[in-house]
């Protein structure tokens, strides 16, 4: 199959600055292509070359096999539709008038709008859920609504290809998802090529990702092929953890926010579970404390966090009762620690040993919150004993940090 | 819901026709329809008043239409037909004719001055075959400043002609004859060309890049609209001097009533501009001493515009 649109070796520079160098990309009909990359890497410039706003210094863009420069402006507008980042409309046109402007390339200069034109516009407003706005002024609707109206106008052009430049960049998350779903539902009738800044939205919605770096293509492929920690680091110069989205199974990226564990301070042991300790572990690491954790089940999210942070951790296999061996290790660790933090983790017979190990340890203990007790009151009893023996109850991480710095 | 008045154009048209008849019959000459000398009446009505009324009609309509197009093209509510130096160029040309030729060929010189200054601005702001409206605006201001320095110099050195130059600069129709009217007939012809592009102007209100995406050949459209508007303005300036206010405010006032669609806005502005200028000129020539019509237009129009602004929030 010949690609519907392709760039062949295009280069574009503003003055001496090469924005795009030797860029080639072929897009098959019906796909949803996401272009990703850091600011200034040439994403928007590439899109502008596709829509013929910019003429490449070198190379050419081919649209359905023909050089895009050979198209007359109306035919081009009937083939490619564009939705920009933010459009500022100079005069207060009504939404219907704006949408009907999409018919411009189809009708003569003075020809009145036909019933067919009006139908196509209404249909586009229905698709984008903007029909109820038809009588409102474009200057008086919200950002999310305006973006949908502009998509409706572009659909009224009846293009084969839709180019989008960060169509969701100024919108709240609900509108972002709204717009992305709307766009995805246009495929495969319309081929979508979009520049996106939210990696996770792109990962979920796009079927192919183009990752760019400084005017060049770094990788092209499915989200799973392209969105790997190494490639992301190379493109964005940032460390990202790539997990699988628990619901969709698509790659899900989480920034690491630059943690550098150090061991130049007090040693703190954290007893937690079920995700109650993750923030505490992270915050303690961020502040440079020497941190250890456990006993934790291998599939516990606290355990994953502790390992990712590079902490010394006592681990049990998933769903196993804490073994005597681990209890011995824990006791040794607790004795060596300067302070012990116990989170409000849920306690059952499996991890009760974590609490029992605390009795008879002289190290100061801090209790943050109280979790569910599945041990017929045993866990609560131990907590009470700990408090009687001098354990301090505190409300949250911030309070903990305050005490640690006193 | 937004109202887009369908009746506005016919109403304006009727008002214009009635205005032509009434204003032709009003005057300070002391003659009225009761005078029996029919030959005298005929001469007064058809040789003096009617050309004046028609001149005001054509110039007012042309300036309002050109102002409307300039505001749409520049996407700037402060734009008027003189924005790219047309008036200063015209004034300089006229001043040269007054000072050096004793007023001979003044309309021709005014036209040449107006056209030459606009073309200069156009050439300055063109780069790589493209013309950015922002550059156009700024080079218009720069060229205007330069020309107005030359104009000031000529006025400073002009001695007795100063009053004449000043009077011309404020604009008026005291000098209107059938020859001028025939020249001004080019204005409606040019306005028709502007009207053909009204849908393009609507799309260009979205911004230039958006307009390209929608299939507008923006470079060609800008060039044509700019040249035609300038042509209209240059003719208006050459027959009646620099009449301000009409081209700036009339499109705003009409936009309040019609909304921004140029297919209605442009003819509405043209009709309203004609009506305003006919009446303003009638007032100007009915006063004990004839004063420049530009003073009247601003004097009557500005308070009316402020009233509309206060009443309606949307402009």
End-to-end separation of chain B in angstroms reads 16 Å
Which two chains form the greatest contact, residue counts included?
Answer: A-B, 33 and 27 residues
- CATH topology label of the largest domain in chain A: Rossmann fold
Give the strand content of chain B: under 5%
Overall spatial form of chain A: elongated
Helical fraction of chain B equals over 70%
User: Total helix count of chain B?
Assistant: 14
Can you tell me the CATH class of the largest domain in chain A?
Alpha Beta
Task: Explain what the structure shows.
- The complex is a heterodimer of chains A (about 400) and B (about 325).
- Chain A has about 400 residues and is α/β, with parallel strands linked by helices.
- Chain A folds into two domains: about 5-250, Rossmann fold, CATH 3.40.50; about 265-405, Rossmann fold (3-Layer(aba) Sandwich), CATH 3.40.50.450.
- Chain A has 15 helices and 18 strands.
- In chain A, the strands form four sheets. In chain A, strands 6-7-8-3-9-10 form a six-stranded mixed β-sheet, sandwiched between helices. A six-stranded parallel β-sheet of chain A has the order 15-14-13-16-17-18, sandwiched between helices.
- In chain A, helix 4 (about 115-125) crosses helix 5 (about 145-155).
- The N and C termini of chain A lie far apart (about 70 Å).
- Chain B has about 325 residues and is mostly helical.
- Chain B has one domain: ABC transporter involved in vitamin B12 uptake, BtuC.
- Chain B has 14 helices and two strands.
- Chain B has helices spanning about 10-25, 40-75, 85-100, 105-125, 135-155, 160-170, 180-185, 185-195, 200-205, 210-215, 220-240, 245-260, 260-285, 295-310; strands spanning about 125, 130.
- A two-stranded antiparallel sheet of chain B has the order 1-2.
């Amino acid at each position: 199959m010949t690609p519907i649109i392709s760039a062949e070796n295009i280069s574009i520079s503003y003055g001496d600055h090469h924005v795009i160098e030797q860029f080639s990309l072929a897009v098959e009909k019906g796909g949803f292509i996401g272009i990703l990359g850091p600011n200034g890497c040439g994403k928007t410039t590439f899109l502008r070359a596709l829509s013929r706003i910019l003429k490449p210094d070198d190379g050419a863009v081919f649209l359905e096999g023909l050089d895009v420069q050979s198209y007359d402006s109306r035919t081009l507008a009937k083939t490619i539709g564009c939705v920009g980042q933010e459009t500022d409309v100079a005069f207060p046109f009504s939404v219907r008038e704006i949408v009907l402007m999409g018919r411009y390339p189809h009708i003569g200069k003075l020809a009145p709008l036909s019933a067919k034109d009006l139908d196509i516009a209404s249909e586009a407003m229905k698709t984008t859920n903007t029909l109820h706005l038809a009588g409102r002024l474009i200057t008086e609707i919200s950002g999310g609504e305006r973006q949908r109206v502009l998509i409706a106008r572009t659909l009224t052009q009846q293009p084969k290809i839709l180019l989008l430049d960060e169509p969701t960049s100024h919108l709240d998350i609900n509108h972002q998802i709204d717009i992305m779903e709307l766009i995805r539902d246009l495929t495969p009738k319309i081929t979508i090529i979009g520049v996106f800044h939210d990696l996770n939205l792109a990962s979920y919605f796009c079927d192919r990702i183009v990752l760019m770096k400084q005017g060049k293509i770094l990788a092209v492929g499915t989200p799973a092929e392209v969105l790997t920690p190494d490639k992301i680091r190379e493109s964005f110069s940032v460390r990202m953890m790539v997990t699988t989205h628990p619901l969709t199974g698509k790659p899900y990226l989480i920034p690491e926010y630059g943690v550098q564990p150090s061991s130049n301070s007090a040693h703190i042991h954290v007893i937690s579970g079920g995700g109650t300790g993750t923030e505490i572990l992270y915050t303690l690491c961020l502040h440079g404390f020497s941190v250890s954790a456990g006993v934790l089940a291998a599939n516990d999210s606290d355990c994953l966090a502790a390992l990712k942070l590079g902490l010394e951790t006592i681990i049990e296999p998933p769903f196993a009762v804490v073994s005597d061996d681990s209890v011995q290790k824990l006791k040794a660790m607790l004795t060596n620690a300067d302070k012990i933090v116990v989170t409000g983790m849920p306690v059952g017979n499996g991890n009760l040993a974590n609490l029992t190990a605390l009795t008879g340890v002289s190290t100061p203990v801090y209790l943050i919150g109280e979790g569910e007790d599945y041990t017929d009151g045993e866990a609560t009893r131990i907590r009470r004993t700990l408090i009687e023996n001098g354990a301090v109850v505190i409300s949250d991480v911030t309070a903990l940090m305050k005490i640690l710095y006193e | 819901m937004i109202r887009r008045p369908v009746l506005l154009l016919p109403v304006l048209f009727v008002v214009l026709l009635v205005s032509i008849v009434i204003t032709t019959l009003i005057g300070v000459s002391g003659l009225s329809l009761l005078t029996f000398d029919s030959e005298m009446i005929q001469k007064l009505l058809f040789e003096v008043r009617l050309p004046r009324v028609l001149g005001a009609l054509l110039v007012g309509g042309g300036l309002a239409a050109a102002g409307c197009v300039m505001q749409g093209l520049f996407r700037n509510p402060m734009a008027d037909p003189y924005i790219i130096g047309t008036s200063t160029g015209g004034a300089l040309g006229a001043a040269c004719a007054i000072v050096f030729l004793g007023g001979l060929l003044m309309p021709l010189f005014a036209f040449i001055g107006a056209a030459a200054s606009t073309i200069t601005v156009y050439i300055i702001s063109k780069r790589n075959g493209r013309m950015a409206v922002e550059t156009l605006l700024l080079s218009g201001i720069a060229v205007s400043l330069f020309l107005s320095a030359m104009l000031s110099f000529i006025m400073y050195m002009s001695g007795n002609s100063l009053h004449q130059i000043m009077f011309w600069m404020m604009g008026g129709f005291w000098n209107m004859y059938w020859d001028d009217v025939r020249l001004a007939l080019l204005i409606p012809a040019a306005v028709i060309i502007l009207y053909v592009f009204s849908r393009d102007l609507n799309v260009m209100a979205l911004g230039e890049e958006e307009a390209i995406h929608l299939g507008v050949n923006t470079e060609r459209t800008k060039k044509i609209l700019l040249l035609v508007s300038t042509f209209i303005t240059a003719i208006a300036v050459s027959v009646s001097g620099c009449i301000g206010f009409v081209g700036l405010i009339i499109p705003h006032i009409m936009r309040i009533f019609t909304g921004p669609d140029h297919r209605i806005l442009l003819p509405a502005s043209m009709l309203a501009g004609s009506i305003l200028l006919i009446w303003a000129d009638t007032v100007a020539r009915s006063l004990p001493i004839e004063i420049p019509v530009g003073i009247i237009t601003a004097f009557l129009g500005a308070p009316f515009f402020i009233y509309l602004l206060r009443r309606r929030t949307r402009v």
